[in-house]
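Backbone-to-sequence.
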C-alpha cells in the first residue's frame, strides 16, 4: 500500500496511487538569440505582420509564460546533417516557437526562454510530430500550412493511414488536407485570404491532381465555379422570396367552379389559387360543371329547421374527359442538397435544429440512418462525413 502523503488529508481520500513528480526532463535555459535558430522543416510560413511581431516581442520582454522547446545542434544534425550550413554555428535549434523567436528578434530582445530536450530528436518522426502536433491541435496553421504539415508527416510516417491513426482521425482527414498541396500558388493564395472556400479548394485540388491542371487552368475553373455559385445563390434567393410571397389556402369543403390550377413556381407542382383547397379526388381529376339545382341549394339561406350535415353531392366527371396528371416535382424537392440549401437560407437556427432532429426521429433505427448517410457517397466522402459527425458529437457533449 502506498505511503500516506499530504494530499490525502487535503482531498479527504485514501487513494493508493502514488504522487508522481511530473516536472519536465528538459532543462529550462535563457538562451541568447544569437545562439538559437528555428528549425528548417517548419511548414508554417505566415507569422503575422512586422507590427504584430513587435507587439509580441514587447509582450515576451515583460513576461514569457511559455518556454520554447528546443534541441541541441548536434541532436538536430543527426536527423538532418545537410542543414549544417543553413543553421549556422549555434548551440540550439527550436522545435516550435518560431513566431516567438521572430517577435523577440523584431523587438530587439536579447534572449528567449527555452526547454532543451534532445528526446524530441529521437528520430525524424518524433521531431516532426512535435513540430506539427501543437499547431494542428491548436489550429495555428492556415489551411495551406496545415496541408504541407500533414504531407510532411506522411513522408515520415509512411502512409496516410499511419498519420490518421496517430492523430486518431479517419483516413479522409489526411487526404482532404493533402489535396490542397496540388493547388497552384495563385489558388493557394486565394485560400489563405479566404477568398476561396475550403470545399471548393479541395474539389479543385482533386481535379488538379487527377488532370494535371496548371495555374491558369485552376483559376479558370474557379472563375466558372464562382459564376455557378452566384447563379445558385440567386436561385435560392428567388425561391425564398417566392416561398414567403405564397399564401397558404384555408381548407374548404368544395372548390369554386371554374378555378384553374396554377403552377407554383417554388414547389413546381400545380395548385389552385388562394382560397381553393382541393382534396385528393380534385387533384387527380378536374371538377365537373355544377348544375343549377346544386348552385340553388348552396345559395338557399338556412331555415330554423334542423340542418343535415350530409355533404352536397358533386356530379362525377365525364368518363371521356382526360384525368389531370400531377406535375413532376421540381425545385428543392428534386434534390436533397437543394432542399438543405433552402432550409439553411430560410430557417432560423432554432428551426434548423428542429429540422435536423426531426430526421432522426422519423428514421427507423441506426441502420436506416447509416444507409441514408451512405447514399451514393464515395468512401472518401463517407469518412469525411464520419469525421464531421464525430466533431459535432464532441461539441454537443461539452
Amino acid at each position: 500500500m502506498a505511503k500516506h502523503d499530504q494530499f490525502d488529508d487535503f482531498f479527504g481520500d485514501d487513494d493508493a496511487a502514488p504522487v508522481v513528480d511530473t516536472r519536465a526532463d528538459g532543462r529550462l535555459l535563457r538562451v541568447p538569440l544569437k545562439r538559437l535558430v528555428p528549425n528548417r522543416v517548419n511548414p508554417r510560413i505566415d507569422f503575422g505582420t512586422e507590427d504584430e511581431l513587435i507587439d509580441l516581442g514587447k509582450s515576451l520582454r515583460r513576461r514569457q509564460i511559455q518556454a520554447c522547446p528546443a534541441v541541441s545542434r548536434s541532436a538536430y544534425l543527426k536527423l538532418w546533417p545537410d542543414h549544417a550550413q543553413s543553421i549556422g554555428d549555434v548551440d540550439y535549434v527550436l522545435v516550435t516557437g518560431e513566431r516567438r523567436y521572430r517577435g523577440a528578434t523584431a523587438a530587439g530582445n536579447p534572449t528567449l526562454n527555452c526547454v532543451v530536450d534532445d528526446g524530441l530528436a529521437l528520430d525524424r518522426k518524433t521531431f516532426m510530430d512535435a513540430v506539427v502536433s501543437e499547431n494542428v491541435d491548436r489550429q495555428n496553421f492556415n489551411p495551406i500550412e496545415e496541408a504541407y504539415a500533414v504531407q510532411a508527416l506522411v513522408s515520415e510516417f509512411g502512409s496516410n493511414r499511419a498519420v490518421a491513426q496517430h492523430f486518431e482521425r479517419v483516413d479522409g482527414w489526411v487526404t482532404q488536407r493533402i489535396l490542397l498541396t496540388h493547388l497552384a500558388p495563385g489558388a493557394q493564395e486565394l485560400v489563405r485570404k479566404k477568398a476561396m472556400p475550403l470545399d471548393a479548394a479541395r474539389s479543385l485540388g482533386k481535379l488538379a491532381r487527377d488532370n494535371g491542371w496548371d495555374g491558369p487552368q485552376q483559376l479558370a475553373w474557379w472563375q466558372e465555379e464562382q459564376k455557378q455559385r452566384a447563379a445558385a445563390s440567386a436561385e435560392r434567393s428567388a425561391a425564398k422570396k417566392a416561398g414567403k410571397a405564397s399564401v397558404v389556402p384555408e381548407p374548404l369543403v368544395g372548390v369554386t367552379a371554374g378555378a384553374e390550377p396554377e403552377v407554383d413556381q417554388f414547389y413546381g407542382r400545380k395548385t389552385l389559387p388562394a382560397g381553393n383547397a382541393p382534396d385528393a379526388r380534385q387533384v387527380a381529376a378536374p371538377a365537373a360543371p355544377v348544375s343549377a339545382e346544386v348552385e340553388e341549394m348552396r345559395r338557399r339561406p338556412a331555415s330554423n329547421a334542423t340542418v343535415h350535415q350530409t355533404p352536397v353531392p358533386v356530379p362525377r366527371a365525364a368518363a371521356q374527359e382526360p384525368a389531370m396528371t400531377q406535375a413532376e416535382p421540381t425545385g428543392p424537392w428534386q434534390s436533397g442538397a437543394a432542399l438543405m440549401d433552402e432550409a439553411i437560407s430560410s430557417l432560423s437556427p432554432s428551426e434548423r435544429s428542429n429540422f435536423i432532429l426531426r430526421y432522426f426521429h422519423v428514421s427507423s433505427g441506426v441502420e436506416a440512418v447509416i444507409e441514408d448517410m451512405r447514399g451514393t457517397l464515395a468512401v472518401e466522402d463517407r469518412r469525411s462525413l464520419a469525421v464531421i459527425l464525430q466533431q459535432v458529437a464532441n461539441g454537443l457533449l461539452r
